[in-house]
Amino acid sequence: MTKLSVNLNAVAQLRNRRDVGWPSVTGIARLVLDAGAAGITVHPRPDERHIRRTDVFELHEVLRDYPEAEFNIEGYPSNDFLALVEKVKPHQVTFVPDDPAQATSDHGWDIGGNEELLTTSITRMHALGIRVSLFIDEDPGVPALAAAVGADRVELYTGPYGATFRLPEGAMHLQALAATASAAKSAAHNASTGGAGLGVNAGHDLTLENLPAFVAAVSGVDEVSIGHGITADALVLGFAEAVRRYRDVLAG
After folding, report:
1. Average pLDDT over all residues of the chain
2. CA–CA separation, 22 vs 166, rounded Å?
3. CA gap 139, 206 in Å, rounded
4. Does residue 100 carry a pLDDT above 70?
5. Are 132 and 95 in contact (CB under 8 A)?
6. SS3 19
7. Annotation says 48 is catalytic
8. What are the b/e assignments for 120-131, b being 16+ CB within 10 Å?
9. If you ran DSSP here, which 8-state letter would residue 201 be given?
10. CB atoms near residue 252 (< 10 Å)
11. Which of 86-90, 184-188, 226-230 is predicted least confidently?
C-alpha cells in the first residue's frame, strides 16, 4: 500500500495569521499520526511564512513517540537548509528547485544543469544515512539522471495532472506519470539500493477526487505527500476522518 505523508505547511500558515499559537502544528501532527498517517512532511522556507525552524525541531521530538512514522523535510539544498537537516536527521529529505519567493513548488529539477549541486548535497545527506528524493517533472528520461547523481527516490510532480484531471489532458498527464514511475523503478542505482531501481514518491494537488485515478494508473508509488488538499478536506471532515479517507483510497 502506498504510504500517506501529511504535509503540515497549510496548518502552519493558518497558525501564523495570528499570534495565538493555534492551530498547533505538533497537535495536528499527533492527530494525523494517530489516525494512521505514515509520516509527516514539512517544507521550511527561509522567510518562515508557514513552517518555522522551531516547528522542525518540535516535530522531530513528536516523532520520537511514533517510531514507525517517517519525517520528510523538503527544501532547496542551500547551506542553511542542509545544516538544518543535518541537525534533525529526518528519515528522508526531498530536494526541490524552488526559488525562495515561490508560493509553492511548481516544477521539477533540471538535473543536468544542477549536477554538481545535487551530487554534493546528496553525498552530504548520505553521510548521515538520510534517504534523498528529488522532485521531478513527468518525464521518463529524468529518473536515470536522478540515479546518476545518487538519489534514492524521485517525487513525481503531480500538479499538472491535478489541474487537468477532468479534461482530456488529464489522461495524458497520467500516462506520462505512469511512464516516469516505471522508468524510476527500472533505473540503475549506484548506492544504497544495491543496484535496484529508484523509489517513487508523488505529490502536489492530489485530492480525494483525483487520487483514485492516479492510484489506478500509476503503479509502484511508495509514498504520496499531501498537504493543501487534505487540509481543505479536514475543514469539512476533520483531520482524522480526512486521513482515513485518503488511506482508504490508497489501499485501493
Report:
1. 94
2. 36
3. 19
4. no
5. yes
6. coil
7. no
8. ebbebbbeeebb
9. E
10. 9
11. 184-188
Q: How far apart are CA 14 and CA 79, in angstroms?
A: 28
Find out whether 161 and 95 touch, Cβ atoms under 8 Å: no
Number of domains in the chain: 1
Catalytic residue among 70, 74, 155, 223: 74
pLDDT exceeds 90 at position 101: no
Secondary structure (H, E, C), 92-152: EEEECCCCCCCCCCCCCCCCHHHHHHHHHHHHHHHCCCCEEEEEECCCCCHHHHHHHCCCC
CA distance 20 to 193: 45
Active site residue 126: no
Give the whole-angstrom CA distance, residue 167 versus residue 210.
Answer: 12
Q: In 10 A of CB 112, how many CB atoms?
A: 11
Catalytic residue among 155, 204, 223, 228: 204
Here the CATH number for the domain that contains residue 22 is: 3.20.20.70
Residue type for position 130: I
Residues 6+ apart with CB under 8 A from 126: 132, 150, 191, 192
Neighbours of 107 (CB within 10 A): 15
Residue range 113-154, pLDDT digits in tens: 999 999 999 999 999 999 999 999 999 999 999 999 999 999
* Active-site position among 43, 50, 173, 189: 43
Give the pLDDT of residue 20: 84
Domain interval for residue 194: 3-251
Instruction: Tell whether the model's pLDDT for residue 22 goes beyond 90.
Output: no
204 is catalytic: yes
Q: Cα–Cα distance between 232 and 171 in angstroms, integer?
A: 25
| pLDDT for 191 | 45
Would you say residue 106 has pLDDT above 80? Answer: no
